[in-house]
Write a structure and sequence with these properties.
elongated, 218 residues, six-stranded antiparallel barrel, alpha+beta, 29% strand, 2 domains, two-stranded antiparallel sheet
C-alpha cells in the first residue's frame, strides 16, 4: 500500500518541478523506469571542404576552357564534383530534452487541490493574458530578455527546475509538452484518488558537455 499522505518518506522517488518566477512547486512520485535525454550533433557541408572544392573546380574549369572553349568550361561548371563536397562539419547540437511521468496526489505533501494543481501545471505551457492582450509566459517577464542585448544570461538558473531525489537537478528549462490525466477511481468525497502527469522539458539553449553533466548531482 502506498502511504501517499507522507510523500517525503519516498524521497528517492520524489520529483519536484518548480516554476522559479511564481515559486510554485509540484511534487509527485516518478513513474519512469529510467530517465533518458537526447544528445545529437547537427552536421552540414564543411566550409573548408567547400572552399577547397571551389578552388579545384576553378582550376579544372580554366583548363577545360583552354582545351574545349566555352563548351568544355560549361561542362565542368555543371558536372564537376569531388569527394570534398561530401565532407561534413559540425554546425550545432540537437536539444537535450527529457520526459518524466509522475503520480500526483492533490492536498498531499504541499500539493494543492485539483484546481490549484492544474493551474500550476498549466502555467508551464499556457500563455499569460490576464493583464495584457499579448501572449506572455508565466515563466518570465518580457523585460527580463532586455539584458540579452548586454551579453548577459537572464534565464540561467531560472524558468523551470526539475529535481529527482537527491541525484538529479536540471534548471533553465521550458516545458514543451504537458499531459495531466485523472484517475477514474475516486475517494469518499467523489474526488479522483490521484493524477498522472506526463511532461517533456527542454533547456532554453544548447548546452555544452559540462552543463549536461551538472544535471547529475551524484
Amino acid at each position: 500500500m502506498l502511504f501517499y499522505d507522507s510523500l517525503d518518506q519516498f524521497s528517492d522517488y520524489m520529483i519536484q518541478v518548480k516554476n522559479t518566477k511564481t515559486g510554485e512547486i509540484i511534487k509527485g512520485l516518478i513513474d519512469n523506469d529510467d530517465l533518458s535525454y537526447t544528445m545529437g550533433a547537427n552536421l552540414g557541408g564543411s566550409q573548408m571542404a567547400g572552399m577547397a572544392e571551389s578552388g579545384l573546380k576553378g582550376m579544372a574549369s580554366s583548363f577545360a576552357g583552354k582545351i574545349a572553349g566555352d563548351v568544355g568550361k560549361a561542362l565542368v561548371d555543371s558536372n564537376f564534383k569531388t569527394v570534398l563536397s561530401t565532407y561534413k562539419g559540425y554546425e550545432d547540437s540537437s536539444e537535450s530534452s527529457f520526459s518524466i511521468s509522475m503520480h500526483l496526489f492533490p492536498n498531499k505533501s504541499g500539493n494543492g487541490s485539483y484546481p490549484e494543481l492544474i493551474e500550476i501545471i498549466a502555467k508551464l505551457t499556457q500563455p499569460n493574458t490576464e493583464d495584457s492582450k499579448f501572449l506572455q509566459s508565466y515563466l518570465y517577464d518580457p523585460s527580463d530578455t532586455k539584458s540579452l542585448s548586454f551579453g548577459s544570461d537572464p534565464f540561467k538558473g531560472q524558468l523551470i527546475h526539475v529535481s529527482i531525489g537527491g541525484w538529479f537537478m536540471a534548471t533553465g528549462l521550458f516545458c514543451t509538452s504537458s499531459n495531466p490525466k485523472m484517475s477514474k477511481f475516486v475517494d469518499e468525497d467523489g474526488k479522483p484518488l490521484f493524477a498522472q502527469w506526463d511532461a517533456t522539458f527542454t533547456p532554453y539553449k544548447i548546452l555544452n558537455a559540462g552543463e549536461i553533466a551538472s544535471w547529475h548531482l551524484k
